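Something for you to look into today, if you have time. Could you write out one complete protein record for me, on any chain you like? Leave the record below and I will have a look.
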Amino acid sequence: MVEVNLWSGLRAFAHGKDCVEVDAKNVGEVLSGLVEKYPGLEHVIEAGVSVAVDGKVIASGLTEPVKPDSEVYLMQQLKGG
């Protein structure tokens, strides 16, 4: 299981939790696992989120591996120019 830290605006969709666990081996599985366990997160994830794994923001590639001890943060997608 991978622990995923959520920003405060998402906690309402995850029963008030700031950290949740999903079974995943890569970033894509983290996102699909979150939607499966917490369907209310689907619209936010589909709109676009940023994922940081062990301090590195994953810009592209849902195949970026995660390990059970990885530090994973789901963040608002960074936009701008």
Summary: DSSP finds two helices and five strands in the chain. The chain has one domain: 2-76. The chain has a mean pLDDT of 93.
